[in-house]
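Inputs:
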Amino acid sequence: MDMFNFIMALGMACAMAIMLARLFAGPTLYDRVLAANSFGTKTILFLLVFSALSGRQDAIDIAMLYALINFVATIAILKFFRYRSLEISLAQMSLRRAVDGEDEA
Amino acid sequence: MTYSVGLTAVLVLLWLTLSGQYTLSGDYPLVIGFGVLSVVATVALTARMRILDRETVPILPALPLAMYWIWLGREILAANLAVVKLVMKPEIDVEPRLVRVPAEQRSGLGHAVFANSITLTPGTVTIDVEEDGFLIHALDTSFTDPAGFAEMGARSDLASDGKRKVL
Amino acid sequence: MSGAEIWHHLLFAISVASMSAGLVFVLAGAIGVIRLPDFYTRMHAAGVTDTLGAELVILGLILQAGDWQTMAKLALVGLLLFLTSPTATHAVANAAHRAGHKPDLAHFKPSHPRDLADEEGKA
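Outputs:
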């Protein structure tokens, strides 16, 4: 089982490396955000396999935390690049949307 | 009242699962104390913010949704294999499409379940919500079958019980 | 061979099969992210193939976990990924669409599903 888990961890590391390549190469911002999010998912899987491999329970807790932070970080990056600020309220957002219309730039 | 009891039960279960300490006389009686404190504080704050409703504590008709998830799981598996086949071809040969799909669900929850199901099924992602439907990006023309979308929409409407409104 | 032993071997086999399938899906998604031509098509490979791959890997880990607490924690991570992954994909796609990032299509103007059938000659 340890051998198999080791191969799994190697595979996850390969997938993470490919995601990093897209993160550096991605022509648009959204490619990079997508690659970062996907990289996070693979990191979570890597941590889980690592926890099974080494028998350390704490890695699962770290993976759970990483899953939460990964999601919030993706949304926060998108919000920042849309409004150029993180201190914007929901009311201001809908106002902006109403002013911009469907903003099909 | 039902909602606060449900939230308390879920939070207690979560705390016990994550801490692994579920006896008062254990090595760390403090852990249980902190647990009680955080659960009470969370429920009290949620009640004070008046967001203790069906959206925060989704106590749903579990059986129809479970049946729907089993059906959806089969769809996801089939679509995943199709996407992997497309990606693994020696030459990438895809024809992306933007499609509008009408959303005829009776409740807000039905809309949410339908849109999320479309996104969960590989090859199709909900891009935008318009007044009477969804704008969907499909990886290939083989994923844009209107009959498939209609069946998924009808099933998600039935599963989410159209009589109840969310929001 | 005793019954418990057979059960143990069966669990092991299912776990290995599930985790291998998950690894195949994750790697296929990663390769798709490199190979596919534009952002919206990459999104299909990155965001969605991941979900099934991650769930399969977590299922395999649950089957080889010994105690109930580890199983519950792994199931919780699986639930979190199942809920957040499609939402994040939709958020990225919606942000790109709202910012005016146009997908690479044969023709951009989307048509209504009812006149899609006669308009489109399949390649």
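Remarks. The longest helix of chain A spans residues 29-54. The interface with chain B takes residues 61 of chain A (CB under 8 Å).
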